[in-house]
Amino acid sequence: MNKIFLVFAFVISQLIFAQTGKEIIDKNIEVSGGLTNWKLLNSVFLQGKVTLGVNDEYPIKIYQARPNLTKTSIIIGKKESAIEGYDGNKGYAMNYATNKLQEYPNYAAEGFDNDFIDFESKGFEARYLGKEKVGNAVCHKVELTKNVNKTYYYFDSKNYMLLKEEKKDETLLYSDYRKVGSLMFPYRIESSSAKKDSDYVMLIGKVEINKVFPANTFKFK
Question: Gene3D superfamilies of this UniProt entry (predicted)?
Answer without folding.
Answer: Lipoprotein localisation LolA/LolB/LppX (2.50.20.10)
